[in-house]
Design goal:
Blueprint lengths: L3 E3 L4 E3 L2 E3 L2 E5 L9 H11 L3 E5 L2 H4 L10 H12 L3 E5 L15 H7 L8 H19 L9 E5 L11 H13 L6 E5 L3 H7 L5 E6 L3 H11 L6 E6 L15 H13 L3 E8 L10 E3 L9 E3 L18 H11 L20 E10 H8 L4 E3 L13 E8 L9 E3 L2 E2 L1 E6 L2 E7 L14 E7 L15 E2 L3 E3 L2 E2 L3 E7 L5 H5 L4 E2 L6 E9 L5 E4 L5 E6 L2 E7 L7 E3 L7 E9 L7 E4 L1
């Protein structure tokens, strides 16, 4: 039996000192058939460990509807086959620039600010979920012959709250469900974060991107003994729609990594390989500096993160520099860098020949429509990723007045008597032109991703404060939701379709031939905003706002010969074709 131990000043495996050289790689952001390659890339960079989160909402999108939790176990097994130890961060909250920080919408919608506290109802949900998840981890712990060395208690809790009873309850729950390897917490190196996020008797680690000596000095003020570890060395960063692409100088990042190791510390590169937020699961942040109360900043689909291994699994300059730094701390020669996965043999254009208007898609694939006194939220309608159509007839007779969607999250296309009347946002929630009595108003509201970090994590989506005509609330609103997971092969095949004409919103379908399948980038020249599926696999959101201008297509998604593509356009369609390169 292998024993992993947290010593007085370092980690030990069977009594032998060991330094953890880890890299973050999220199994849910990499196609399963590519796990092996990406894990071998970590080994070739000089790492001996991989770290992953577990997103609760991915595996339980509806209460009691659990999907493929066994994927966690399969990933842990894959890591062990490639000679890597594993650090598991099961949450229940994970951040990760993931929808709602990994918390299910049906939990936060019901509990609001009671989530991530010792609230009895929240803890009951966590206990039930962990009871399903933890067997995948427990049976693969290092003291049972598996690869799992450590398990995290919550995630960066000191950046959010101060409920020490909650953290202790999560730690006790993990132990009670069979976790015998060491537990740990991770937080920023600020005093309030370390004091708010750590648990007595549990290893505390710190997260930062530079100035390692200062960060570790802060940790030592709180924990005079125990191993030093940077659990998230931010060697890159993520992008927001409508903002500039973020990069970090490779040499500067390598110098920061070297400083961590010179301190005698262990490290986890965040991210070693970022991957992709497939399926529309990308989250969002709030601007406004430290308060995180400013405008919504939705995350792009790519989670490349400017990581040393890019979204396509290729080594970057940062990879080679990190490999050089890490080689000094590894026994023996590093493994050879594996061959890269095959790329698409050549450019392919797919014509989109069938079309279903968005109203028809909603009728066929949406949830039930009902009338509500006030507009229901996405949570009320059980919509996690997708959109909601709100419809109301303005009472009359009355003169034209301003119409405003109060508490709008996040974006609404508005139609008045069937004509497009404008686009509303949080910052501009009112129509430019007044609306008269008897007018039928439709608001197609889209969620751009739930907040994954800060005090507004878990906030509801939709029209959350009512519809106002002048100062009067409009009641009797009809609403209907459309979830992204409704786009199944059977559901889409049954949709009525017509020939493609103009720039209408709706679902476009086409096919294309591939000879020489491999990794590709899918481009939509001239298209506005929406989602793409290839052979039923949702690649994620596209948006002309940039900075991302193409979607990553994993080679295993493509088939030799005939392939199918769906494009759900929510604004204005471009030329009826997509290009894969």
């Amino acid at each position: 039996m292998t024993v992993f131990r947290v010593g007085e000043d370092g980690f030990e495996v069977d009594g032998r000192p060991v330094r953890l050289l880890s890299g973050a790689l999220h199994y849910f952001r990499v196609h399963e058939e590519q796990w092996g390659h990406r894990l071998r890339m970590l080994r070739a960079m000089g790492l001996n460990c991989v770290e992953t989160y577990v997103p609760w909402n991915l595996h339980e999108p509806r209460s009691g509807e659990v999907h493929d939790v066994a994927a966690v176990g399969r990933f842990l097994d894959a890591a062990q086959r490639e000679g890597l130890w594993v650090i598991v961060r099961p949450g229940p909250y994970i951040c990760a620039e993931w929808e709602n920080g990994g918390l299910p919408h049906w939990v936060t919608g019901r509990l609001g600010a009671r989530a991530r506290t010792s609230d009895v109802e929240f803890m009951a949900s966590v206990e039930r979920w962990f009871g399903v998840l933890l067997p995948q981890v427990v049976e693969r712990q290092v003291d049972r012959g598996g690869p799992v060395l450590m398990v995290q208690v919550e995630n960066e809790y000191g950046s959010y709250g101060s409920d020490r009873r909650y953290l202790r309850a999560v730690a006790d729950l993990l132990v009670g469900l069979g976790v015998t390897v060491p537990l740990f917490t991770s937080d920023g190196p600020e005093d309030h974060m370390l004091s708010g996020g750590s648990v007595p008797g549990v290893l505390a680690t710190v997260n930062f991107g530079s100035r390692a000596r200062e960060a570790f000095a802060s940790l030592r003020r709180h924990r005079p003994g125990g191993p030093l570890m940077c659990m998230e060395f931010w060697c890159g960063w993520f992008d927001h729609w409508g903002a500039k692409h973020v990069v970090r100088d490779p040499r500067e990042a390598a110098d920061a990594l070297r400083e961590i190791l010179e301190c005698g510390a262990s490290v986890n590169l965040y991210m070693a390989h970022g991957g992709t937020s497939f399926g529309g699961w990308a989250g969002a942040n709030r601007g406004g500096g430290a308060l995180h109360e400013g405008p919504l900043e939705p995350d792009v689909t790519s989670y490349d993160y400017d990581a040393p291994i890019d979204e396509f699994g290729r080594p970057t300059e940062k990879f080679w520099l990190f490999r050089e730094v890490l080689a000094a701390y590894v026994e023996g020669p590093l493994p050879e860098v594996p061959r890269q996965p095959a790329a698409l043999a050549g450019p392919v254009a797919a014509r989109l020949t069938a079309f279903t208007a968005l109203g028809g898609v909603l009728e066929a694939l949406g949830g039930p429509e009902a009338e509500y006194a006030v507009p229901p939220s996405f949570e009320d309608l059980d919509v996690d990723r997708g959109l909601v159509r709100y419809a109301v007839t303005v009472p009359g007779p009355r003169q034209p007045y301003p119409l405003r969607a109060r508490g709008l999250r996040d974006l609404a296309l508005v139609y008045v008597d069937g004509e497009r009347a404008g686009v509303l946002t949080e910052e501009e929630p009112g129509l430019a032109e007044p609306v008269a009595g008897h007018a039928r108003v439709e608001l197609w509201v889209e969620s751009l991703g739930r907040v994954n970090y800060g005090p507004r994590t878990g906030e509801p989506k939709g029209v959350t404060g009512g519809l106002l005509h002048e100062r009067q609330f409009l009641h009797g609103v009809r609403a209907r939701g459309l979830r992204l997971d409704a786009f199944t092969a059977c559901g889409v095949a049954a949709l009525p379709s017509a020939a493609v004409e103009g720039e209408e919103r709706g679902l476009y379908r086409g096919s294309f031939e591939v000879f020489g399948a491999g990794d590709a980038a899918l481009e939509l020249p001239g298209w506005g905003r929406g989602f793409v599926w290839v052979n039923g696999f949702c690649l994620g959101r596209y948006w002309s706002a940039g900075p991302q201008d193409a979607l990553y297509v994993p080679g295993p998604v493509l088939r030799e010969g005939g392939n199918e593509v769906w494009v759900l356009e929510l604004d204005r369609a471009g030329e009826p074709r997509v290009v894969l390169r």
